[in-house]
Please model this.
Amino acid sequence: MKHQVLILDDEPDVRRVVRQQLSGTQFDVLEAGTAEQAMDLLRDYALTVQVVICDVRMPGISGVEAVSYIREAHPTKPIIVLTGYPDLDLAVDFMKSGVVDYIVKPVEKDALVAAVEKAAARHQKFDPHDD
Model:
C-alpha cells in the first residue's frame, strides 16, 4: 500500500510540482489549498498520511497556525515546511517546535524525495501502528 503525503499550499502550481516530483515513489499525494481543507483531509486520512508538507504564507489561516494545529492534533505526524520566503528565525522556531525539515522553494526533486522519505521513516519509528 502506498502511503500519502499531504501538501498544503495555496498555489496550485506548487502542489502540481510536488505531486510530479513524488510520482513514481512510494507516496501518493493529497492536496489542500487551504488550512481548512488540510485539516479535513487529516481527519479523513489520519492513518494513511505519513508526512505533511506545509507552505508558510497563505491567505486565511497561515502556515504557522496550520503547523501549530497539526502538531497539536497529530503529534507524531512529521511536518516539512516548504516556503518561498526563507526566514532564519522562523526556520529555527519551526525546528524547535518539531518540524522535521525547512525547505526553500524551488526544491530539487531528489532533495524533496529524500526529505519526505526521511520524514516518513521518522513517522514509522514513532507511530508504527499508523499505517
Remarks:
- The longest strand covers residues 3-8.
- The mean pLDDT is 90.
